[in-house]
Amino acid sequence: MSKSEIRFVLDRSTGVPAYRQIENQVIAALRFGRLEVGDQLPTVTEVVKNASVNVNTVLKAYKNLEHQGITQSRQGIGTIIVDNPYRGQEQLQRVLSERLTAVFNEALEFGLDPRDLHAAVMAALNRFQLAVNQDQTKGAKENG
User: Which of these, 31, 98, 103, 107, could form a disulfide with 86 (CB 3.0-4.6 Å)?
Assistant: First the structure.
């Protein structure tokens, strides 16, 4: 078991709740192979200190990850990755990363300022995340 090097970076301007951003960053790290089964997530105290977020926010994110079967909280040890349902997607993620890099380079060639590019990407991600959240809420209501 190794301590992961993941550091959560929260963007409060996106409209995506902080707990969901933490969950999404863990899932992205699993998809890109930066986290593996057996890795330990940062302690709640570490996340609170480094990301300037409320304890309950971190607890909610970690509990949701545990509910999905991705992590397990172990008394005295911390939160451990116990399953990676995204294993095998590393190649897909690598291709996606290459395609996004090409789009970013093209935007820069057309004279788009990096700050404007960042704002455009964050706005698109925000719209995407809100749509996903609405679909999940709709699906839960239909199944519940």
Answer: 31
What does the pLDDT look like over 76-132, one tens digit per residue? 889 999 999 988 777 787 888 899 999 999 999 999 888 888 888 888 888 888 888
> Reduced to 3 states, what is the DSSP secondary structure of residue 101?
helix
Q: How crowded is residue 108: how many other Cβ atoms within 10 Å of its Cβ? A: 12
46: burial class by Cβ within 10 Å (0-12, 13-18, 19+)? middle
Distance CA 92, CA 21 (A): 21
Distance CA 63, CA 60 (A): 5
Q: Which amino acid is at 130?
A: L
Question: What's the whole-model pTM score?
Answer: 0.67
